[in-house]
Amino acid sequence: MLPYARLTLGPGFRPLRAALYYAQRLAVAPSLRRGVGAGLAALVNLRTGRAGRRPALPPEAAMHLTALRQDGIVSLPPLLSGTALRETMDWLASRPVLGPQGPVPLAALPPGTASASYPLETVLRCPHVLEVANDPAILALAEAYLGCRPTLSSIGLRWSLPRPDRPTDVQFFHRDPDDWRFLKLFIYLTEVDSGSGPHVFVRGSHRTVGRLRAQPYHPEALARRYGTAAMSAVTGAAGTSFLADTWGIHAGAVPLARPRLMLQVQYSVLPVYALDYRPLPVRPARPLDRYVNRLLLAAAERGAVQAA
Predict the structure, then answer these.
(1) Where are the domains of the chain?
(2) Which residue, among 168, 243, 245, has the nearest Cα to 204 in the 3D structure?
(3) Structural contact between residues 245 and 182, judged by C-beta atoms closer than 8 angstroms
(4) What is the β-pairing status of strands 151-160 and 115-117?
(5) Beta carbons of 230 and 258 less than 8 angstroms apart
(6) S-S: 7 plus which of 18, 55, 93, 217, CB 3.0-4.6 Å?
(7) b/e for 19-44, b at 16 or more Cβ within 10 A?
(8) Which pLDDT tens digit goes with each residue over 207-246?
(9) Strand pairing report for 260-268 and 182-188
(10) Contact 225, 286 (CB under 8 A)
(11) Gene3D superfamilies, alphabetically (predicted)?
């Protein structure tokens, strides 16, 4: 869980961050977002020495890229499974989550709590998480979609808990206005069926005009505009993995019977200026790309990080 920057007047106000964040948030036309995103990607390529480079994707990845561009979402082979998934869940079992009053064991959350995230340091130290976030095939696909070497701009592990009487924030249909161009990797760490809060995505909505005000979308209006077939709920066993452009309209359904634990990793052209990055001294299990991970891993640890 990353802290938010102060984007409104008051102590700690960050005017430049506010200007950069709201500039893209107020851009709701897909053509404008694509154009500015492409220009920024070109600048990133100049900065990272990748101008003019268009690495070829293997056939399966090329199919995934086509699906992403068309639908805004694509299913992937499981990125965590077997021993790696068990090690991840066993390690998290004894770690506290962030409750309303601070860190507490998951079982000690107050009744009626809708969701709970693990602290950022817990996420970064969790076995296999940084390795999955830096999977070479995922980074290559993200680079092809974004048009430049991706920035790992957000990462989190979040429980969604049964509370069928009252949905909250991300459980309403919405768009994520995080950057001019971005992509998110989702991995279910628990089994998810229709009763445990599946991610629901409106296919093709990433190519449509957004709203200036961050108001939720009504499911009935979405069904009329896009068709019920476009409203796709992702269910599956623990380890189910998918990528989505969450400028597209989506929601996390309210869990009715069982909680859901999900890993979310965001790749973007720029940092998310609504977030206040405080890189942590976490040494990865293997060398990672310096540029991709610069917002999360402290400079003191970058001796363990190599450029791709």
Answers:
(1) 15-304
(2) 245
(3) yes
(4) antiparallel
(5) no
(6) 18
(7) ebbeebbebbeeeebeebbeebbeeb
(8) 999 998 878 999 999 999 999 999 999 999 999 999 999 9
(9) antiparallel
(10) no
(11) q2cbj1_9rhob like domain (2.60.120.620)
Model pLDDT for residues 62-107, shown as the tens digit of each residue: 999 999 999 999 999 999 999 999 999 999 999 999 988 889 999 9
CB neighbours (10 Å) of residue 219? 15
Q: Sign (positive/negative) of CA torsion 259, 234, 236, 142?
A: negative
Single pTM value for the model: 0.95
Sequence-distant (6+) residues with CB within 8 A of 172 are: 216, 217, 251
Contact of 248 with 73, CB cutoff 8 Å: yes
CA pair distance 234, 198, nearest whole angstrom: 6
Reported as a single tens digit per residue, the pLDDT across 101-126 is 889 999 999 988 889 999 999 999 99
Q: Could you count the other beta carbons within 10 Å of the beta carbon of residue 281? A: 11
